[in-house]
Amino acid sequence: MADFVRGFGIPFKGALLVFTSFRLFLLAILPFWICFFSAIYFIWAFWNSSFSIVPYLMDWVPGLYRFTEKLKIGEFSLIAALAQGMFWFFLLIFVSYFSYVLLCIIGAPFYSLLADIILARKGLQLKVKNSFFRWLYTTIRMLIISVIKITFFMGLSFILFIISFFTFGMFIVPIFISLMVSYDCMDFSFECVTMSLRQRLAYFFDHFPLFLGLAMSILVVSIIPGLFTLILPFFIAGGANAFADKKNLENHEQRALT
């Protein structure tokens, strides 16, 4: 229960860390603004270069709306309302998810450094030999693990998408997605200490209450669309802090036994 509460409080601890250090604050806000201006640029470029697509889209959306308006007679009124509601709901989900993915891609180097600084302050610093080949080996190894993780998450996401069409899916899918995101937040710390895929999975299952608490916190924050994307650095910073505390406690217990 203590780990669950600690996991739920990870973003609050992360916010405290970020706002009390100018360096961490800079690493936290830079990806958001880079992502924001990149999104504006891509929208502008798409608008100016895709003259054949944009008019079609601009006609299709009002056309769908007019079609559902025509259905608002008798028994079709409920179908029309549901169609409009589902369209805007999925559009909002898509925009929020796209923003999250874009921020993760752009912010990955910043967030890795953010986690690394917090781990170093906690005394959990990676000791790597000053060798180019050692650095290259570690980089390639971490890249392979990241590709495996992304592939697995994509497959799991597809399965969850199918399950979401069933009644029980509306309860199961959000929890599983939140657990995936909670793992992703902690994964920056895993990479900083070059943990293998087996070690990462073992840590996830050994400290499942911690990840479950973090997942519940993500669910609560996600009630407001886009808020999680905005405060993502708090989750990463708090996750790094919790990971360092756990590792330091485990190392202390191992030294006490020996």
Outline of the structure:
The chain contains eleven helices and no strands.
Mean pLDDT: 75
The number of helical segments is 11
Distance between the termini: 29 Å
Radius of gyration equals: 22 Å
Count of the domains: 1
Uncertain spans, ≥5 residues at pLDDT below 50?
Answer: none
Largest sheet: none
What does this 3D model show about the protein?
This protein is an all-alpha fold. The protein has one domain (about 1-45, about 110-250). About 85% of the residues lie in helices and about 0% in strands. The protein has eleven helices and no strands. α3 runs antiparallel to α5 (about 75-120) and α7 (about 170-190) packs across α9 (about 210-220). It is globular and about 65 Å long. The model has no long low-confidence stretch (mean pLDDT about 75).
Helix-strand layout with pairing:
Blueprint: H1 2-8, H2 10-19, H3 22-49, H4 54-70, H5 77-121, H6 132-163, H7 169-192, H8 197-206, H9 208-221, H10 227-230, H11 232-257
Helix pairs in contact: 1-9, 2-11, 3-5, 4-5, 5-7, 5-11, 6-7, 7-9, 7-11
Structural descriptors:
globular; 258 residues; 11 helices; mainly alpha
